[in-house]
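Design a sequence for this backbone.
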């Protein structure tokens, strides 16, 4: 059965005239007539209003099978399981802790920070924060390394006469 015929049957089953439907939807009676004669089709908004007015499911009114609910629930459950699995694989907090420790092991953090950056993934919870802390740790390690090297080589030492 075509949409025009389903619209007419649903209207008659609801016990409404074309004028009553037109008044409730705030459109012309001619528009209802054109929909029921197949000369034009209601837009999605009007189709939704018609299904509510006729107390008919929009899928039934449109001639489609209603989608089954169980696959959607299965998909939601499997999505929840995937989220739990991804949380187990999230290394963001561990990487953030290691990148903070880099400040304590200066100047060796210069060599370890690139490994942490390489290990960091976009799916980690603290993805951006790990990068920021690692860059800060590299700069701090370079600064302390330069300071240690300059003290060892007596760079910048001056003698007063």
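Sequence:
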């Amino acid at each position: 059965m075509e949409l025009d015929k389903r619209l007419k049957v649903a209207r008659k089953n609801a016990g409404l005239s074309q004028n009553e439907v037109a008044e409730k939807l705030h459109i012309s009676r001619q528009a209802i007539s054109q929909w029921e004669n197949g000369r034009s089709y209601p837009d999605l908004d009007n189709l939704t209003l018609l299904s509510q007015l006729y107390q008919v499911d929009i899928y039934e009114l449109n001639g489609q099978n209603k989608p089954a609910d169980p696959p959607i629930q299965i998909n939601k459950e499997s999505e929840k399981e995937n989220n739990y699995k991804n949380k187990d694989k999230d290394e963001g907090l561990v990487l953030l802790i290691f990148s903070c420790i880099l400040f304590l092991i200066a100047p060796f953090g210069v060599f370890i920070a690139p490994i942490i950056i390489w290990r960091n993934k976009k799916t980690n919870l603290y993805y951006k924060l790990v990068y920021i802390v690692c860059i800060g740790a590299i700069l701090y390690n370079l600064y302390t390394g330069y300071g240690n090297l300059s003290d060892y080589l007596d760079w910048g030492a001056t003698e007063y006469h």
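The mean pLDDT is 83.
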